[in-house]
Design a protein that fits this description.
The chain is of the alpha/beta class. The protein contains nine helices and eleven strands. The strands form three sheets. It has a six-stranded parallel beta sheet. A hairpin with a 2-residue loop joins strand 9 and strand 10. The radius of gyration is 19 Å and the shape is globular. The structure holds nicotinamide-adenine-dinucleotide. Nicotinamide-adenine-dinucleotide binds next to helix 9.
Amino acid sequence: MIETQLLSGTAVASTVKEEVAERVSVLNGRGKSVGLATVLVGEDPASEVYVRNKRRTAEKLGIASIHHQLAADTPQSEVDDLIVRLNQDPAVDGILVQLPLPDGLDGERAVNLIDPAKDADGLHPTNLGKLILGQPGLTPCTPTGVMRILDHYGIGVSGKHAVVIGRSFLVGRPLAMLLNQKGTDATVTMAHSRTPDLAALSRTADIVVAAVGVAKLVGPDFVKPGATVIDVGINRTEDGLVGDADFEALQGIAGAITPVPKGVGPMTVAMLMSNTASAAEAAIT
Ligand code: NAD
């Protein structure tokens, strides 16, 4: 019987946040304050919770939280002007535009306007391009958080077969890039909604990443005994918050698994803080 290891994102996120607090204090010692600007448009309750959480975490780590709340009917030109102003503000090191924007506003346009050097979410085309080219840059928070969990728990990636289920630009696609980067060296298969016989494909993986948004999709038929399962999904169901993997059913089958909640979620916020610190460090070097 396999004893399934719990990969606690909360624990790894604490370590990352301690490191960030230390980096911020070093920057402060060099006369550099660190600021994260958050832009929230409209009153979507989930977005409000996410932004509040990010602001609180920033403040705890010594990062100034510079918040801009705009009404849902704000014209695109005002959103654009705000981003341009934040780009020019030396007190702002990282900029986060909480997506999705309300109907009628163009989130992609907003992200594209962010100075790539201040792109705390790592989603600007310049940074995604650098990721593909293997050049240093700010990388997307959730995929980077997944890599950090694997590293923290000493789960070797080199030479392993990783199946990433989900190909969004936010998670699946950049994560596939990070996993098969030179020096990391996994062999990656990207699967999606049109992949035939997904369970059989997934069973060939040493590492299965689920970034889909379908509750408990990844069950015992998806997982080779001993494989690592990273569950990115967040699904609100009658049973509460569940992931894309069937956590209970995979006990004794998976070698290791991230829970939901307290898995990848906390890492996303921690890596946002880490990216903000990196942007601040780059600003004074
Ligand atoms: P998305 O909707 O943009 O992409 C989903 C992907 O899953 C698509 O590529 C689609 O092809 C694929 N897909 C859909 N149904 C499928 C199926 N039945 N079989 C195989 N593939 C299928 O979603 P996203 O933004 O990438 O988010 C995915 C999940 O991760 C969501 O549950 C989201 O809430 C969660 N998420 C979590 C965090 C975090 O911090 N933990 C961050 C971002 C997203």
